[in-house]
Specification:
CATH superfamily: Nucleoside Triphosphate Pyrophosphohydrolase
CATH class: Alpha Beta
Distance between the termini: 35 Å
Order of helices and strands: EEEHEEEH
Radius of gyration: 15 Å
CATH architecture: Alpha-Beta Complex
Number of helices: 2
C-alpha cells in the first residue's frame, strides 16, 4: 500500500448549514473583522483540542445565537489549496427560532436554496449546501 505522510500547514474548520423549511441561513461578517465581508455559511476554525461537534455548537451560539437540540455531522471535506491541507466538518441543523447576529456578524438572513446570493468563496458555499442537503437528515 502506498501512503504519503503530509507535513506542512494544516487547518481544521467547521461550518453549519442551518435550515428553515426550504431556506438556508447565510451570515455576513462585520467588515471590520473580515477582509471579505460577503455572505457565507456560519463557520470557524477549531480551537486547539476542541472537538468538531463542540466547535459547531460554539459557532451556532456565538455567531447566530442558536442552541438546537441536534447538530449532526453531515459531511467531511479534505482539500489542499496553496500548500495548506484543510479538513472541514460540515454540520446541519434546523433553526429552532429566529437567529440573531453575534458580535462578529453584521447580518443573518435565510435564502431560498434555489436563490442563494453570491458568496465569499465563489460557488463553494452553494456546493456545500447542495451536498449537505442531498445527504438527507442525518440521525442525531
Amino acid at each position: 500500500m502506498d501512503t504519503e505522510t503530509r507535513s506542512g500547514p494544516t487547518a481544521m474548520w467547521v461550518d453549519v448549514v442551518i435550515c428553515d423549511d426550504s431556506a438556508v441561513l447565510l451570515v455576513r461578517p462585520t467588515a471590520k473583522r473580515e477582509e471579505n465581508a460577503e455572505w457565507r455559511l456560519p463557520g470557524a476554525a477549531l480551537q486547539y483540542g476542541e472537538a468538531p461537534d463542540a466547535a459547531a455548537r460554539r459557532v451556532l451560539r456565538d455567531h447566530v445565537g442558536l442552541d438546537p437540540e441536534s447538530v449532526p455531522l453531515a459531511d467531511v471535506e479534505s482539500t489542499l489549496r496553496d500548500g495548506v491541507w484543510t479538513l472541514t466538518f460540515h454540520f446541519r441543523c434546523d433553526a429552532e427560532r429566529p437567529p440573531q447576529p453575534g458580535q462578529q456578524i453584521a447580518e443573518v438572513r435565510f435564502f431560498q436554496v434555489e436563490h442563494l446570493p453570491p458568496t465569499a468563496h465563489g460557488t463553494r458555499e452553494r456546493d456545500i449546501v447542495f451536498r449537505v442537503l442531498s445527504v438527507g437528515t442525518p440521525e442525531p
